[in-house]
Amino acid sequence: MNILKQLGPGLVTGAADDDPSGIATYSQVGAQFGYSLTWVMLLSMPLMIAIQAVSARIGSVTGHGISQNLRRHYSPWLLRGAVILLLVANVANLAADLGAMGAALGLLIGGPIRLYAVVFGLLCIGAEIFISYRNYAKILKWATLSLFAYVAVVFTADVPWGSALYQTFVPRFSFDGQNAMAIVAVLGTTISPYLFFWQAGQEVEELHRRHLRPLNNNSRAAGPELRRIRLDTVVGMIFSNIVSVFIIFATAATLNAHGVTDIQTSAQAAEALRPIAGVFTFAVFAIGIIGTGMLAVPVLAGSAAYAVAEIFRWPEGLDRNLREAKAFYGVVAAATLGGIALNFTSIDPIKALYWSAVLNGVLAAPLMALIMVMAMNPRVMGRLTLPMPLLVLGWLATVVMLAASIGFLAL
Question: What is the C-alpha to C-alpha distance for residues 168 and 265, in angstroms, rounded to an integer?
């Protein structure tokens, strides 16, 4: 039980990574390639753990989010460029996630999909603004249970476990454009910039909630807090990756095994399961889309708000009420409403998702490099710069993402 109390920002961040857009990517990989690319999730796991742990460490050690540290210590144009790209990518991702949630509910009960997207968006805005941080953090933490829907789906499918596990642990790669693009898509979906901003911001919130000073001015608390962050991040990212593997397994065992290889959205994946795996499996998959969306939409909007508020030095944080942080909550609402609005335009949601992936890929590697430089800088971190294992893994993650970004743009 003590371990559960230590889980928070890392667990929520990891779960939010399996948003409806991510579910669409993993479903397509499972449908198109079966189990043969599941090993990419094992490759990404330590890289994801490392960069999220570095982001969390920056927030807890300095008492400031990533944007504010960039503003305080680096050139303003770096910060503005990163935040503009983050905003565009997040709004596109919000549009895709809200659209997928509306489509999933439409599949379950029928009715107006766009109206459902509006309702989901307004619910998320209201929850972030009007529920206290202490209670909201608990809601997000419990919302991670929605991901177990995909565990249930796997155990209702006929998975050939020997073959599936063999291909997961024994990498096999075909040197062609389709395989390369799929690998890049999985890495880009798994290691996303909005998660860096969110987890750093949430660690600052945790300091406020527990009435702790930043760790660079609080040596007594530094050891226990950094151990808590390490445990929270490791558990959260492993949980996220295991669920991603289960989504690939579920769609490989059902869709790929029956010749369905072209899935472009999470809702399409759910609908395709109905005639193959039955109504129960279809319903659980669709409910999971809605549950993960209710978790991911606030993270996407919140990470945008942290980034923008830190540029302009606005009061920020979910621990503040509306009167104290009007501009911060204004960004939360504006980003979510922007995502809702895109669902009423002629913009193809698949293209919106594609371009958000491109922007995330372009932004991830340079931002990760900035985060690593920041986390090694004694002016920023004091005595709590990165230990060697985290330093090596963080730079390895950055190099892998750079190579993935170059490959994505080249292809």
Answer: 24
Q: Write the pLDDT tens digit of every residue in 6-28.
A: 677 888 888 888 888 888 888 88
Contact 66, 196 (CB under 8 A): yes
DSSP-assigned letters across all residues of 102-157 = HHHHHHHH-S-HHHHHHHHHHHHHHHHHHS-HHHHHHHHHHHGGGGHHHHHHHHHS
Q: How far apart are CA 93 and CA 78, in angstroms?
A: 22
Separation between Cα atoms, residue 107 and residue 123, nearest integer Å: 20
Tell me if the pTM is above 0.85. yes
Measured from the Cβ of residue 108, the count of other Cβ atoms closer than 10 Å reads 16
Give the separation between CA 104 and CA 155, rounded to whole angstroms. 21
Query: How far apart are the C-alpha atoms of 66 and 268, rounded to whole Å?
Result: 36
- DSSP of 182-229: HHHHHHHHHS-HHHHHHHHHHHHHHHHHTT---GGG-HHHHHHHHHHH
Q: What value, to the nearest 5°, has the Cα angle with vertex 41 and ends 142 and 278?
A: 65
Decide: 361 and 405 in contact? Cβ < 8 Å: yes
Identity of residue 370: L
Per-residue model confidence as pLDDT tens digits over 89-118: 889 889 988 998 999 899 899 889 999 999
**CB-based burial, 296-334: b 16+ in 10 Å, e otherwise:** bbbbbbbbbbbbbbbbeeeebbbbbeeeebeebbbbbbb
Locate 180 and state its tokens. Answer: 């390369």
Cα within 13 Å of Cα(328), Cβ side: 23
Residue 184 falls in which region: left (phi positive, over 0), alpha (psi -120 to 50) or beta: alpha
